[in-house]
């Protein structure tokens, strides 16, 4: 075969591939783009995907399709479409996609965050019930959190006058204990190896996780992509191995003192449920040892990083806007004084609540929620959405929608204060998402954020880091983290 024949066949194959690519696009999709053959639109995505999603929304509208590699995806950019998908059609849109970032060391998806089906349903119900039974959302959890806050405040008081410091480390250390008490019933000293290992693994995950990892969308190229991206994925694998080992050790320690029927913490409740089920079904597959490790890790990771990061941003905004900081301190001084705060104080401290709400909105810590999956063919706003379509909710687009907020670029807690001085709770504020996939730890997070913020404002005034300006830049990542977490404090 001569050179021209070979080139002709190459051109024919390319043309056939391109034709097949565009002909296989399902009918009656929303407006959108298939991008390029094979790779889809993925090469054009910003490292912060919500930026690209915003640009595409201006072209196609708030509901559009886009291909990530060969994965058909539905992007939702406004509150009404997200509400329709996750509340009105919640069962259909409650699936999860297989994202490689969340695989365990065996290449499987485990835990409760990234699974779906019967496994996810049963474990989500069990987690919510266990957290409720152990005081989350009730006043019985307060003494545990307030006790931990005192340890935290004592550590911060040692730093007064000693220059700027990384507030995130201290917050994460403290909040790890809150979730540890719920998970395995134990509080650890701040210098305990378990605490150090937890913080290191969270830092590793924060630095290497990607919202739209290429290896997820090109599974047939995964071996090559693993080699090309070996350094990042090696750190990710090390994070998983360390985390699994640490949690297995914690569970083993808890199990060694376990008495049948105990339910004082999550591990005990899980073991009790597992034993009860095993008696009736020796082949039980929902409550297993590996499942316990994965779900306990989900609880610790999710229960530490997000709340700690939210409070770091809160401190930075207080340092940037001292007049707002003084106003909230005045409210706290007037209503609570120097006594320990209670979650019941919320109704009498609307400005505290307004600031927390405005931090949720303006930061949008999780700008793009973990993608959902359509579990069956469905109709959505008159469009046909095939089974297994990935659904990507752009939460930051909702939080910056000028039709909802007027001046979304401005930090203005007063937007949450009603005409009678009460704190408003608009349904389109979505820091924990909505529907069946909303964060199960939301009740705990709300209690923590309120009690920690009030306690910090009672005791300290936040200032910019010494000799530096506050930076509100954020590196690309799953969470919007401040590029620098340095802050200074002054004891009141």
UniProtKB/TrEMBL annotation:
GO cellular component, one term: cytoplasm
Ranges annotated as spanning the membrane: 6-23
Cofactor list: heme
Keyword flag Phosphoprotein: no
Gene3D superfamilies registered for this protein in UniProt: Cytochrome P450 (1.10.630.10)
Gene Ontology biological process terms from the UniProt entry: organic acid metabolic process; xenobiotic metabolic process
Residues that, per the record, bind heme: 439
UniProtKB keywords: Heme, Iron, Membrane, Metal-binding, Monooxygenase, Oxidoreductase, Transmembrane, Transmembrane helix
SUPFAM superfamilies attached to this UniProt entry: Cytochrome P450
Keyword Manganese included in the entry's annotation: no
Matches recorded under InterPro entries: Cyt_P450, Cyt_P450_CS, Cyt_P450_E_grp-I, Cyt_P450_sf, Cytochrome_P450_fam2
GO MF annotations in UniProt: heme binding; iron ion binding; oxidoreductase activity, acting on paired donors, with incorporation or reduction of molecular oxygen, reduced flavin or flavoprotein as one donor, and incorporation of one atom of oxygen
Family: Belongs to the cytochrome P450 family.
Name assigned to this protein: Cytochrome P450 3200B4
Organism, scientific name: Chamberlinius hualienensis
Taxonomic placement: Eukaryota, Metazoa, Ecdysozoa, Arthropoda, Myriapoda
